[in-house]
Amino acid sequence: MTMNGEKMPAADDRPTIKVAAVSWPGVELEPVATPPDTGGGEKPGRSRRGRLLLAGGLTAAVLAAGVGVGAYAYAGDVPRGTTVLGTELGGRSRADAARALRAELERRAETLTAPLTVTVGEKKAELKPADVGLAIDVDATVAAAAAADAHAVSRLVGSRTVEPVVTVDSARLEAALRKAMGSQGREMTMPAIIWTGTTPKPVYPKPALTVDTAGATEAVTSGWLAARPVTVPLVEKWPATTREEVDRLVTELARPAVSAPVTLTTDGGSVTIPPAAIARSLRFSADEAGTLTPRVDVKRLRAALGGKLATLEVEPRDAGLTISGGKPKVVPSRAGRQVDAAALGPALLAVLPRSTGRSVSAELKPAAPELTEAALAELGIKERVSTFTTRFTGGLSSPRSQNIVQAAKDVDGTIVKPGETFSLNGHTGERGYDQGYQDAPTIVGGKLVPGVGGGVSQFTTTLFNATYYAGMQDVEHKPHSFYFSRYPAVIESTIYWPQLDFKFRNNTPHGVLIDTSYTSSTITVSIWSTKIYDSVKTEYGPRRNITQPKTVYLKPGPDCIAAAGSVGFAQDAYRVIKKDGKVIKREKFSWRYDPEPRFICAPEPGA
Fold first, then answer.
1. What is the pTM of this model?
2. If we measure between CA atoms, which residue out of 258, 288, 291, 292 comes closest to residue 276?
3. Phi, psi of 563 (to 5 degrees)
């Protein structure tokens, strides 16, 4: 036999082929067997070859059928049988699938843009999808539809539904849910250990009552797609450090730490660190997760020891600025020779739990200033960019006024580098008697009571406004629960160690100098830097939801502080920042003031 001019081998010359039996629905095949050699008879040979051809043909048919089904299933970029939102995208190219999906979204536009009813805790609110960035990412959804399926067989003979890829602005959604949550929620109380003299006092953690952002996001996106109301429960979120751990730190570290002095020995001599200095320098700080960690603040230790270390070391001095004649004047830096703070802190922390062997050794090392004149010059602090003044009564002799002035002195001359975040609590530390603060009225539990450091909120508000009108980024602040007419509504801030802080971030390319000054009735904070905005102004919305105060009678006594009371209200304030004649930023600040009761220090009439 020939094919295309070539001679094919005779049947007897072909190699033996082993063919496995193939089953196919509806077809039965005889087993293929090799007959005995009959000495050249032709029929058995033809029968064998026929069966081989039959089996081979069926095998080819099976393979051809599989290839055909596979080609059908995988035609286009998206496998057939694939649907998204009820729309068949299978068998299409990615571009065609994207067009089909966009057409489906157009048909659903009214539903997808309709406000979504969300119940947060016990309060209902409506969320506009566009306000929280809810949208379907068409390209990402098509890519997911085109992706290979792990269950290839089901794709050959079945179908699959692909969920659309939903995008959402998590920050805006969280803000909207928190607004809907309103007064139902509460902030987390971070664990802490604070000092009253040499007595450690635990601050026990309390959980926040808030929205589970991850779970809420999933619920909102699912509800949006299904066009059904969403319920977002409030959950408790606990700090990482427990009450038991706080007690353990008090028992095993804080109390033993101040039980006796510690001897510090250097190559230049020795000094004794008394318990009072240990208390001022032993800090217990909680991170964002609420993990409480002890450390020795060597800078505070040095300040607490005062002149004791002066005989052993020379403190380096950073280059600084003072305001003279309406202009910044450079104060030169100076190198020093100091105890190695990086080694001293951990070494001292290691011996504080002990009752014996309370001594540490430290090396005196050259200490360069952190900020030199050259580095200071590069910060570009050359002009006053904002200033703010508030007034107080009582003159400089009142404890409240002295607290305001003390906070101003603590902060005066501080330089905040570009990108740095300034924390008022972090800068002053605990504001106690040892730090020069006195008892004055503070708001605790919704009423005025005596408390150390009362009045520092006025300095906080003054500093907040100075940085606000300088265009600095607001990181953390909380307005008072009651409205005081001496402060601008909404744009004001309280402070309370250690739970409430005021923080701002220098979000400019230039350094910032905080300059403070005071008179017998005013406190002023000015921010010096390089001016980059034309103006920063505040626009107020109207007051709303005005509520009247109630009258509360209190037990007369030295701790009772009367108050005239004030109305409660809600209000919005907008920071409007202009540059090159255009508004480049408009930020909304909102707050709700509780009505301050009219407190009367007398028995209730008729009681």
1. 0.52
2. 258
3. -145, 145
